[in-house]
Write a structure and sequence with these properties.
This protein has two domains: 191 residues; 102 residues, Immunoglobulin-like, CATH 2.60.40.10. The longest helix is centred in the middle third of the chain and has 19 residues. The strands form four sheets. The protein has a five-stranded mixed sheet with strand order 1-2-5-7-6. The chain is elongated, with a radius of gyration of 31 Å. Helix content is 19%, strand content 36%. By secondary structure, the protein is of the alpha+beta class.
Length: 299
C-alpha cells in the first residue's frame, strides 16, 4: 500500500504543478545520495525528491472495535485496522550549477513553497479526488480509494536537528531545507469466522431478593431465502402474528434477508412474509425454537 501512496503523491504534485513538474522523472523516491545527484544532473528541469524517512504505528488511532457481517451462514468478524504513519522528507533539486549566472537555490525555494501549498490545499488526501477526472490506476488498494488519509505537514518536531544533521551527513551532503509530511495509512486485518449467527437469545430478570418467577424475554432472528442453493431476499416484509392471525409486529429484512424480533415471550407464533415478485409465505414457529431456526423460504 505504501507504493500506492508514492504514486498518489507523484500524481498530486504533477497534476497541481504541471508547469514546473512536466514529467514523472522529475518526482522520484530514491535516497537523496550521490546517485540521486548524478541523476538530477541529467534532467532539463527541477526535480522533487520524496524520500520515505520513517514508519511508525499511530497508537492514538488504535481501536479495539470490530465489524461483523454474515456470509455463507457464518458470522465474520473483522478487527478495526491499525494505522501507520509514513513520514516523508521532500526536497527540491535544481540541475543548474551554482556557478552559473542563475541562482538555482531560488528555484528550489520557490518549488518548496508551491509543494507546501499543494499539500495543504489537498488536505485531507482522498485518492479518488486526486486522480479525478481520471480513474484510479489498476490495482489501487480499495481500502483507501475513497478514504480521507490524515496528514501532518511541517510539524515543528517532525525531525530533531541532531537527527537531521546525521541524516545529511550519512548521504554526504550539506544541510538542505525540506518539507516533512506525515501521511497515515490503514493496515487492514483479515476477517475471522466468529461462528454461526445467533438465532435465539433469552434474557431472564428477577428482582433482587424477590420470590416471584424470573421474567423472560426472547429475541429471535431469521432469514428470508429463495431458490437452491438458497439466496437472500433483501427488503422482504416480515410480520409476526398470533396463531389466530392477529398482527403483532412488522419489520423489513436487511440486505442479507435477515430480520429480528425482540422482547417476545415463549409460545406459538406465525411468521408471514411478502416480497415483490414472490408468492406470500407463512410458517408456524415455536419460541424458543426446538429446531433452532426461523428462516422462511419464498418461491
Amino acid at each position: 500500500m505504501i507504493d500506492a501512496l508514492d504514486h498518489l503523491l507523484r500524481q498530486l504534485f504533477r497534476s497541481r504543478l504541471p508547469a514546473v513538474l512536466t514529467t514523472d522523472d522529475q518526482v522520484r523516491f530514491q535516497p537523496p545520495d550521490n546517485d540521486w545527484r548524478t541523476y538530477v544532473g541529467t534532467l532539463s528541469g527541477i526535480a522533487l525528491n520524496v524520500y520515505l524517512v520513517t514508519l511508525a504505528e499511530n497508537t492514538e488511532l488504535r481501536s479495539n472495535g470490530r465489524v461483523r457481517e454474515v456470509a455463507g451462514g457464518q458470522v465474520l468478524e473483522t478487527r478495526a485496522p491499525r494505522r501507520i504513519d509514513c513520514q516523508y522528507l521532500i526536497t527540491a533539486w535544481s540541475p543548474v550549477s551554482a556557478s552559473s549566472p542563475f541562482e538555482p537555490t531560488l528555484d528550489e525555494h520557490a518549488l518548496l513553497y508551491q509543494v507546501t501549498s499543494v499539500l495543504m490545499n489537498a488536505e485531507p488526501l482522498v485518492p479518488s479526488r486526486i486522480y479525478a477526472p481520471d480513474p484510479l490506476p489498476p490495482g489501487f488498494p480499495a481500502e483507501i480509494a475513497d478514504a480521507e488519509l490524515p496528514s501532518l505537514i511541517l510539524a515543528a518536531d517532525a525531525f530533531s536537528k541532531t537527527a537531521e544533521a546525521e541524516f545529511w551527513g550519512s548521504v554526504e551532503w550539506r544541510w538542505k531545507p525540506g518539507i516533512y509530511v506525515t501521511i497515515t495509512l490503514p493496515v487492514p486485518f483479515d476477517s475471522q469466522i466468529a461462528g454461526p449467527p445467533v438465532l435465539t437469545s433469552i434474557a431472564r430478570t428477577r428482582e433482587i431478593g424477590g420470590v416471584a418467577a424470573a421474567e423472560e424475554r426472547i429475541q429471535i432472528g431469521g432469514q428470508v431465502l429463495t431458490g437452491s442453493p438458497p439466496a437472500p431476499v433483501a427488503g422482504a416484509w416480515v410480520r409476526l402474528e398470533t396463531p389466530a392471525g392477529a398482527a403483532l409486529r412488522t419489520v423489513a429484512a436487511d440486505a442479507q434477508g435477515r430480520f429480528t424480533f425482540a422482547g417476545l415471550t415463549a409460545g406459538a407464533y406465525d411468521l408471514r412474509v411478502r416480497a415483490a415478485g414472490f408468492a406470500e409465505a407463512a410458517r408456524a414457529i415455536t419460541i424458543p425454537s426446538t429446531t433452532g431456526g426461523y428462516d422462511v423460504h419464498l418461491s
